[in-house]
Design brief:
174 residues; mainly alpha
């Protein structure tokens, strides 16, 4: 059942990516150049809705969060590789799959890059586990936990700030 839920969720997310046109190369390039905020608006809206939804479900006892540890040796190089791949191909993982699904041949390079990268990571993992991935383990932390406040305080600030940012972006015509 979980696989079917994941498949349905993935298909719906792909449809939203396509309808918002965030799987288009020109939108990706515009976001990287800070000229087209379509992707920023899409992702910020998704993050705000997800934050409220996930923590509401958690507080109602319908889901249990599985917080992953913050390991700087994984996050910093991973973020740099993600950004490099996005900058070189013009696609991130979700948008490359959606673009490929639409028949955009250029997205093949992004998908192939992800597959090669995943294979290289799997081969290097035994060495990385005791070296890079062992550096900077801060444990299972969250922003509310670090600040010592209820999660709704942080979510409230993020929602107000996010909505303000979205309104500013719209006012600027980005």
């Amino acid at each position: 059942m979980e696989l079917i839920q994941g498949l349905v969720t993935g298909i719906l997310f792909g449809i939203l990516l396509q309808r918002a046109e965030v799987d288009r190369y020109d939108r990706q390039l515009g976001a990287l150049r800070l000229l087209d905020m379509t992707i920023v608006k899409f992702m910020l809206t998704s993050i705000l809705v997800a934050a409220v939804g996930v923590y509401l479900l958690k507080d109602l006892g319908l889901v249990k969060l599985a917080i992953k540890p913050m390991i700087l040796g994984a996050v910093i190089p991973g973020g740099l590789l993600f950004g490099l791949g996005w900058g070189l191909t013009g696609y991130c993982p979700g948008t490359s799959a959606a673009a490929l699904g639409e028949g955009r041949v250029d997205a093949i390079w992004a998908v192939l890059g992800m597959l090669v990268g995943a294979g290289l990571y799997a081969e290097a993992f035994p060495t990385l586990k005791t070296t890079l991935l062992a550096w900077g383990d801060l444990g299972k932390i969250t922003l509310p936990g670090v600040l010592g406040v209820n999660h709704w305080v942080v979510i409230g600030v993020l929602v107000v700030g996010g909505v303000g940012l979205l309104r500013w972006i719209e006012k600027k015509g980005l």
